[in-house]
Amino acid sequence: MYLKPLPTPATHVFWDGLRRREFLVPRCNDCGRYGWIPYPACRKCQSENLEWVAVSGRATIYSYTLVHRGAGAFAADVPYAIVAAALVEDPTACVVLANTTGIAPEDLHIGMEVSIAFEDIPGEDITLWRVTS
């Protein structure tokens, strides 16, 4: 049984993008605001005129936490970091959570530049933050 997050009707476009190696987020066609996580209307102007667009995947670490006791399907992955990183396209509205790759969790710091990394794991489509600075 698969116990990690699965696509929902509201997020299937995002997961389809990952399979194509694109990181997609909703953007409002009326005010231009990006938004994460997916929501039925723009959180700035309340317009429902949204579309999924590819973004650069470049971001800055806003916050993070080190996990030493993973829950459920993540228990075997400890220790790991969950990083909240603000996308350069709209840092006040687009803070994305993901794990990291290529760096020890204890070496992370706020303000560090990261970018989306696509990880090939059989049967899964996931993204991770990779340090770029």
From TrEMBL:
Q: What SUPFAM superfamilies does the record tag this protein with?
A: Nucleic acid-binding proteins
Q: Which residues form a coiled coil?
A: none
Boundaries of each ChsH2 rubredoxin-like zinc ribbon domain copy? 15-51
- TM helices/strands, residue ranges: none
Instruction: List the Gene3D superfamilies hit by this protein, alphabetically.
Output: 6.10.30.10
Annotated ChsH2 C-terminal OB-fold domain ranges read: 52-119
This chain belongs to which protein, by name? OB-fold domain-containing protein
Q: What is the lineage of its organism?
A: Bacteria, Bacillati, Actinomycetota, Actinomycetes, Kineosporiales
